[in-house]
Write a structure and sequence with these properties.
Elements (H helix, E strand, L loop, with lengths): L6 E3 L39 E3 L1 H4 L11 H17 E6 L12 E4 L6 H12 L6 E5 L6 H9 L3 E3 L22 H10 L4 E3 L18 H9 L3 E7 L15 E5 L14 H19 L16
Parallel strand pairs: 3-9, 4-7, 4-8, 5-6, 5-7
Antiparallel strand pairs: 1-2, 8-9
């Protein structure tokens, strides 16, 4: 065990990873040690941290002091995360609360990660949320809806509900500000936001979609860094589509600083920075990315 954090050092990572040696975190996760776990040129590290269920319920959550309901929801969903997330790799200080504001970007492969990863970051940041953009359809699930409300997610209401008659509820979740304007408001106030730039689930184990440049636009406009986080599936058969129940590992990359620009970023500047961040994310998640890849259509349904 490393310190008294919610992660345990297991020494040897699960197969089939074939990876290099690197340093273990020297202190507990809740203190965000300066001793990083990242490697040069390789996002996968031999030393890694596994989520310890018994410490989830002891993890300090000073940012939620006095809010027992949020703490209970966090620890309950975090328990599920402990069963699904095999480990975390990288420099966790990148997501420390004192590094706010930033934009987190992740590849999107299955439904569970859209719930578990925001909760996991919520826990790792001692109860300070990252405000993720999320599909409003998740609000139909009571437990998820409760967590989303307490973490103040930014609901995106473009998609239709299933079944369609539930679309009558959509106005209840629409805000006067667009999701992008809400995200900018959070960033300008010093809070961080999270985005799955592919915009939809992509179960292909080898290719990323082109994605949407919203994260790049936010970073350039708010002058804040992008933190890429790759999601991998160490036990999944790479010849088959990624399933909802596949266990995952999280790989935290180094902050990508936006270039300094004058005034409103141009379309060319946005697309150039989008390509830069997607390449960084591609390296971390182990998938290929190409600027001419599919933009929205899924490779694998």
């Amino acid at each position: 065990m490393v310190g008294r954090g919610i992660w345990e050092d297991t020494g040897v990572p699960p197969e089939p990873f074939k990876i290099r040696k690197t340093a273990l975190l020297a202190r507990s996760i809740d203190r965000f040690s300066d001793a990083s776990v990242h490697t040069e040129g390789d996002p996968v590290s031999k030393g890694f941290q596994r989520l310890s269920i018994r410490h989830i319920w002891k993890q300090p959550l000073p940012y939620q002091k006095g809010d027992s309901i949020t703490r209970l929801i966090l620890r309950s969903v975090g328990t599920v995360a402990g069963m699904q997330v095999t480990g975390i790799h990288g420099d966790l200080s990148q997501i420390a609360p004192e590094r706010d504001p930033f934009v987190v970007v992740l590849n999107h492969n299955q439904r569970l990660e859209a719930v578990l990863i925001p909760c996991l970051l919520f826990l790792l940041r001692q109860g300070k949320p990252v405000h993720f953009m999320a599909d409003w359809n998740f609000m139909m699930a009571p437990v998820v809806a409760s967590m989303y409300r307490h973490s103040q997610v930014i609901l995106v209401t473009k998609k239709d509900a299933r079944p369609r008659f539930l679309n009558k509820l959509k106005p209840l979740f629409e805000e006067s500000l667009t999701p992008m304007d809400q995200a900018l408001k959070y960033l300008h106030s010093g809070a961080s936001v999270g985005i799955f730039p592919e915009g939809t689930m992509n179960r292909d184990p080898e290719k990323m979609m082109r994605g949407l440049p919203g994260a790049a636009t936010l970073s350039l406009t708010a002058c804040c860094p992008v933190i890429p986080m790759g999601i991998r599936f160490p036990f999944h058969d790479p010849s088959r589509p990624i399933t909802d129940g596949a266990k995952m590992s999280l790989h935290v990359g180094q902050a990508v600083q936006p270039p300094r620009i004058q005034g409103t970023p141009s379309s060319r500047e946005i697309l150039r920075f989008h390509a830069h961040t997607m390449n960084a994310l591609s390296h971390l998640c182990g998938k290929s990315w190409h600027p001419n890849a599919n933009k929205r259509r899924k490779y694998v349904s």
